Structure formats: structure tokens, C-alpha cells
Amino acid sequence: MTESFKNTPVFEPKNRSTAALVIFLLFALPMPLCLFIYHFIIWSTEQSAIISSSAKNFAWAGLIGLAVQAFVMTGVTAALWRFTKDDRFKPVYAGLFGAALMAFPALLLRALGPNNDQLGSIVQFLLCTIGAGIVIWLRKNKFEWDRASLPFGLVVAGFGFAPFAIYGSFGSFGDAFLSLLASIAFGLLAATLIESTTGNLLLDGVGIGAALALLGSAMGYDGSQLLLLAILPSFAFAISAVMPSKFAAGAATALITFAGLAFFDPTELTIVLGDIDGIATKTSGIVILIGVITSLIALILRFATGSTSGAAPSVSKGQRMKRLVGWAGAGVTWIFVIALFFLFGNPGNYGDRLFVILKDQADISEVVTIKDRDERLNAAYERLTEHANETQAGLRNFFDKVGVVYTPYYLENAMEVRGGTLIRLYLMTRSEVDRVIPSPRLRAVPDDSPSLGDLTDVADSVQWNISMIGADKVWDEFNVRGRGIVVGQSDSGVDGSHPAIREQYRGFNKGDDYNWFDPWDGTTSPNDEGGHGTHTTGIILGANGIGVAPDAQWIGCVNLDRNLTNPALYLDCMQFMLAPFPHGGNPFKDGDPTKAAHVLNNSWGCPTLEGCDPNALLYASDNLRYAGIFVVVSTGNDGPNCETVESPLSLYDSVFSVGAMDQFGDMADFSSRGPVTADGSDRTKPDIVAPGVDILSSTPEGTYASFGGTSMAGPHVAGVVALIWSAQPELIGDIDATEQLIIDTAQPYTGDTSIGCFTGDMPSNAYGYGVVDVYEAVKKALRSDQ
Predict the structure, then answer these.
(1) CA 251, CA 434: separation in Å to the nearest integer?
(2) Which residues contact 740 (CB under 8 A, 6 or more apart)?
(3) DSSP code of 265?
(4) Quick one: average pLDDT of 322-327?
(5) How far is 368 from 741, CA to CA, in rounded Å?
(6) In this structure, how many other beta carbons lie within 10 angstroms of the beta carbon of residue 275?
(7) CA distances (Å), 560 to each of 22, 210, 566, 624, in order?
(8) Is 387 a catalytic residue?
(9) What percentage of the chain exceeds 70 in pLDDT?
């Protein structure tokens, strides 16, 4: 491979200037690091808007930040190009000016929004291809496209590619293919802009690193810009070693870029998820180290051959064998990389999908007049499944014919479809389709252990939050503890072996069929890979004083195995709660509504990041209410500003939304507030508040811990409904009467109102109708029976 570096004529620039050299080093050398820090700050600012809609004004930080960079860097590079007299750097500044200009059209990428990766790849491909074409046209083919250094460039790229092959994972074939096209175009653009005219390999590398940093910061988005900014400049000196061959430099750049774009979904590079960003950081760190080492080796090889940058290398007949050896080395490198991927990586299809909502939604509102609970549930199930089968027939037939995989739903007339941009465009032409929204699927990560608590036992005494709402008084005075009521728990899972909740599992002695569903991993018995679901379940019905209704039963579904999911997985669990089915069963045919849950706890929300629009799950929520299932939802942790109840399901009128307060009676700052403006309703939310700060409950493997969030407040109200319906079975299924009972018996909020949104009187957009009081609610329910 080193033979390709020999016989390179020495480039002798004129008009050398020490001042020009100092200016160049001061400007170009720190650029990759400075741009990385700048974009990390911008990205972190954007993340604050994702974490809490109270910071929604920061959502456009990326767009604004890149626009500022575009103006500043274009102006500075143009001035340096125009006024420098040193022939070594003038072409380099011209390339940096072109790279800086690319930030202007790249603003389109920052406006795409999450979960539009295929569209993003198409935009990247078009922008880079057009940019490269313009540069080639302006330069009049003044490029060295010699391929002699290509084997070494492929080896360099293989080294950089390897860690991504181990730790990353591909999306769908369409995702990978479009990322490859975008990367090839990126490599072509980079090759046309980088220069090797300084007469010094080190200075060439500095200029190349600056150009790659400018391009990476512009063409990456949603977090991928940080990956490109981290990995590309680290190979700058290795790329300088294959220059002036634009072919070799472009190929190496393209393949390294492909690794950064294809192996990590940019939308998943968010601190909300909490696992992908850590793995991506680890991978990038390894790649940077490899880049530095590879660059050192490349420079040593170049210096050892006694050549410098300048013209394309020539290859004599006697060197052909060595070139073949070089190609063999490149082949071995890439065979090794491919083997790493299949042996230690994450092969498979982890592509995003589409959630298709149909226009013709079933109207089952009349089932509320059916008095018998089982008959009402059966009627709802039959009408919903029949309607879905009839109205989805045309789309199903088409997908079956063309081989597109899909999952039909009935609780809401919808389908999840495995398809990308082309399928989405087709669906938008179908008259029966109302809209198509993303249904993102997370890429694979190494197995993780659940979060364990710091306590292994709790005293058999009532926790403060249980006493605050009067649950212990209900147990003692009315001997009501939730018996006969089944709570549906959809969350990260539930540790079914935990002593505080083990025996309350409906399948404890009856088996897991109809009682447990895991659409994520297909597990057949209760488990919790996170810990959140075990904690919320304990608040509802945990023993030893941690749960509101300790004699109630629970059934479980995994809709949030990791901290991001999609509308389809949420709907999977909502359907299961209406008509549970055995393992491997068909939800349309094998569902048994007589085994439905009475009340659902939903300590989750579906924001835009997960694909949902405000009404994505509206019909499903309404239909559960019509069927007589009480749906309790935590409002979210986006407070304390107004208009932060904005994600399904908490914003819907058909659910009972719960905010959080602490043990001193003050609203939690994080608790989301109304009014609901996301759907244009101006609806007051939450409906009520409950304890949600430092709540002690169960965590996996028999441990206990205190967590805070509206996720902890909602389960209290699910337990409240269980106690009310256990005490007064005539209220079961009467959602209106039960909600009114809870509202009428709520205690007035008397806490601090100095921080956050407290608009409205009764109900308030901060605390709804007040603080839940289950003792007064049960007492009134029993009195009405007399």
C-alpha cells in the first residue's frame, strides 16, 4: 500500500507568510473542537425543550444556531479567502468557504422534525450532490481522481467503521440504502472541497479537519451532527495521507460518514431515551482513538516514503503486485468488519414504521346503555372488530399482494405498516386514510439490568401518601381494600416475583394467559427490565402500606420497555386491557372481554418524539370509556408553565388526568398544567391531584425506592377507583358517576400558588378540582346505597 505514495512531485507554493501560517493555525486547528462544543450546547438546549414543554421556546435552538454559524463562518472564510496572499492557504480557504456555505441549505434538515430519517437522507443526498456538482463545475475538473491510494483509504475507513458495526444497528433496508446514498454524496462533496496545497501533510490535515467539521455540523441533525463532528476530523491526517487523490479521500470520508448516519437513528440520540446516546458516545470515543492512531500510522508511512503532497502518484509495472497486495489488505479489513457485525453486532431490521389512522371510525357510544358489564364489553369488542375488518379490507388486500407487513388494530381503526417514504406517499393517496404519522421503533442495544431500589424491606406501616388520601381509613372503617377489582397496568413491565405485588397478580395461581402481554419482547410471564412499572404497580395495590388498594388484582402489558415507544405499542396494550387474549393469540379473534380490566393506570404520555400527534389515540381512549373501563392518566412532568398538558392520553376529555403534589400539600413544580391548547380545545386539565413526590414503592428484585413524578400520582387515583368500585359495585362501569364522586369529595387545594401556572378557579389548570380524598368518596358511595 505504501508504494502508492511514492514518486509524488513536491509542491512548492509561493508567497509564503509566517503571519498567514499563524492565522491559518489559529483559525482552522481548533475549529473541530469549537464546533463540537457549540453544537453540543445547541443540542442540549434543544433537549431541554424535549424534556419539558415548559422550555418549548428552545425547540428552534438548532435551526437558529446553525443559521448563526452559516452567517458567521461564511463571512469569516470569505474574508480569509479574499485577503490572504499565501498561495498555500488560498485554495484551502476557498474549500472552507464552500463548506461553510452548505449550512444555509442544510437549515432544511433542522426543520424536518423527529422520525423523518428517510426524508432527511434524501435531503442530505440532494444537497450534497448539488453542492458537489456546483464545485466541480466551478473548478473545471481541476481534480486528481487517481485511484492509486484507494486501498489505503478503504483500510482507513474500515478501521473507523468497525466500532459502529459492533455497537450500532441498522434501520430498515430503505433506511440503510438512503443513508448510503447520502454518505456517498457527502464524501463526494467533501472530496471536492478539501485541499492539499500547503506542501505539508500536517497543515493539509488541519485544513481537511476544519472542512469536515464544517460539513458534518451542517449535514448532521437531531444529534447525528455531534457524531460526525466527533469522528470525521479525527481521520483528517489519514485522509491527508491519501491526497491529492480525491477518489481515495472521498471514499474514506463517505464510508466513515455512512457509519455515523446508518448505525444510529438520529432521533434516538436523545437524553430522554437514556441508552442510545451513551452507546453512541462510547462508540465515538473508540472511533476517535482509532482515527488518531490511523492518522499517525498514515503520516509515518508518508514520511517514510519521502513524499509530500502535490500531484497524483504514478504506479510502474513493477508495483502492480504491491497494489494487488494493497487491495487484498483492504478486502481483508472489510471482511473482518463484516464478521464483527454478524458475530458481535446487532444484525436485523430495526426500521421505523408508519401508523395509519383511518377516516371511518366506529361509533360505539350506544353501548353505554347496556347495564350488564360483560354484555357491554362484548358488544364493544364485537362492533369494533367487525368495523375494523370491514373498513380495512381494501388496504389489507393491497398489502398482502405486494408483501408489505402490517398490524391491524380495532380499538382505534388503525394499522401499523412496515414501510418508508414510498409507502407513506402511497397511503396519502388512499381515500380511506385520514393521516399517516410515524411509529418509530428503537434500535437494538445490549441487554440492561433493571434499576433496583436501595431498600430491601419496608416496615409494615402506612406510608404518608396513603394516609394523605385517606386510603388507610377506608381499610380500617369500611373493611374495603379493593377486592374484586382488576387494575390494568401498562408500563415498562412488572416484576411479578416482588413480594409486595406477587399475590395480587391475577395469573398468580391461574397462569399467564389473558393476564400478561409483552408486544416488545414476547415474554410470557411478568418481568420488568426498567423498574418504573413495578414502582407504579406497588402504589396502586402493594402490600405493607405502600399501595392504595392492596386486595385488588392486576394484569400487565409492556408498552414502554425502554423510555421511548410509539402509538402502535401503546395501542397494543390498550386493546389487551379491553379484551385480553392468550399468548400467541389473535387480538381480533381470541380476545375475551369478560376478562377485561376495570380500571387502567397509564403513567406515560406519547409526545411528538414518539410519533404521536395530539389526537393519535383519541378514538381508542373514547372507546374504552364507552366500554365502561375507567382510564387514569398521569399528566406529565412538563410543568410548571401553562399549556403543558399536551401529549396523549392526558389531554383527552375521556380520561381522568392526575397532577402531582408533595407531602406538604404543595404542587410539584414538574407537574404539567393546562389549559389544553394542543388540540385547540382549551380544556382544563388536570382533573385532580394526588401525591407524587418522594413516593416509596416496590422496585425490581424485592427492593424498594422513592421516586417522584406524575407517574407516581396517577396510580393513587387508579387505586382510588378500585376502592370505590370494590365498596360500591353498582358504580362499576359508570364512569361519569365515579368521576363526579371523586370530584365532589376532593379536598380544596390550599398549598403554595407562587410558582407556576394556577389559572382558573374551580377547576384550576394546576390542580383541577383539588386533592383526591378516597375516604370521603367511599363514605359517600356507601351512603348513597342506603
Answers:
(1) 44
(2) none
(3) -
(4) 76
(5) 19
(6) 16
(7) 54, 41, 9, 20
(8) no
(9) 95
Q: Assess whether pLDDT exceeds 50 at residue 498.
A: yes
492-510 mean pLDDT:
96
- Compute CA 317 distance to the chain's CA centroid, rounded to the nearest angstrom: 55
Give the mean pLDDT of 586-601. 98
N- to C-terminal Cα distance for the chain? 94
Cell of 488: 390494568
Joined grid coordinates for residue 117: 430519517
Higher-pLDDT residue of 153 and 92 is: 92
**d(C-alpha 394, C-alpha 403), whole Å:** 14
Residue 383: partners with Cβ closer than 8 Å, 6 or more residues away = 362, 364, 367
Q: What is the dihedral of CA 456, 462, 465, 470, to 10 degrees?
A: 160
Measure the CA–CA gap between 726 and 550, rounded to whole angstroms. 12
* C-alpha cell of residue 660: 402531582
User: In the structure grid, which three cell numbers stand for residue 151, read together?
Assistant: 486501498
Our answer to whether residue 48 is catalytic in this structure is: no
**Lowest-pLDDT choice from 224-238, 313-327, 514-528:** 313-327
Q: Determine the 3-state secondary structure of 433 from DSSP.
A: strand
Active-site residue among 39, 532, 535, 716?
532
Query: Quick check: 523 and 478 in contact, CB under 8 A?
Result: no
Select from 405, 420, 271 the least CA-distant residue to 352: 420
Burial of 286 from C-beta contacts in 10 A (0-12 / 13-18 / 19+): middle
What's the whole-model pTM score?
A: 0.93
Cis-peptide, bond into residue 763, ω within 30° of zero: yes
Residue type, 655: V
Cell (9 digits) for 555: 394484569
Among residues 175, 472, 491, 572, the one annotated as catalytic is 491
Active site residue 711: yes
Kindly state the DSSP code that residue 409 receives in the 8-state scheme.
Answer: E
- Rounded distance, CA 368 to CA 736, Å? 11
Distances, alpha carbon 364 to alpha carbons 13, 469, 488, 594, 723, in Å: 81, 35, 22, 18, 28
Q: What pLDDT digit, counting tens, does each position of 342-382 carry?
A: 999 999 989 999 999 999 999 999 999 999 999 999 999 99
**Cα-flanking dihedrals φ and ψ of residue 557, to 5°?**
-145, 140
Q: Return left, alpha or beta for 484; rule: phi > 0 is left, psi -120 to 50 is alpha, else beta.
A: left
Residue of 451, 492, 711, 726 marked catalytic:
711
| AA identity, residue 223 | G
